[in-house]
Amino acid sequence: MAKASKKPAKPKKKGSSKKKNSKNIFTKLIVIIFVVILAFFMIFSIFKPSGKKNIEKKETPKVTTEVTKETKPAEKPKTTAEKKDIEIKKDKKEEKKAAETKVVAKSIKGTWQSTTGGAFLTMDGKGYRLDFMGVDSDKPIIGTYSVDGDLITFINQKDPCKDVKGLYEVKFIKNEIGFKCKSDDCIKRKATLPTKWEWLDAED
Q: Domain count of the chain?
């Protein structure tokens, strides 16, 4: 029998092996690049939040809008000399006021006629009396008064305005006196006293 003829082996192509090698290298490069990029992102993601934490820790101090109350400096204890000076000034002030009270109390004593007409005011040192002129004149207002410096307090003993106080400031102008109302709820007295009064006669 004739021997079967062997088919000649096909020669291996050199170009195909080169292509395979270049593909393998290219794939490796891609994998390496991918790994590098992945590692970069992992590192970035690890360090990025820590940076935020550091920023969060450094919080800016809050500005308080509350206004602090001004604290008054503590007063220094006064020396004995300063205390004496204060007492002397106080005594002088009281003496001056007492002297003024005496002068006013003495000066207002007597009988006075309203310059606007229609009323007479008599003051005897303790009590006062307001008399009204005319046929249809009102009943007189009778009461007491007290002097404190240039202030006079009137209190009615009877109606109208029984026990109602009226505070007036007195001023002297030559032979006249004037009353300025400070406070008075008695309408009749308040309507009569605040005017100028001319001196008629002094009470002994």
A: 1
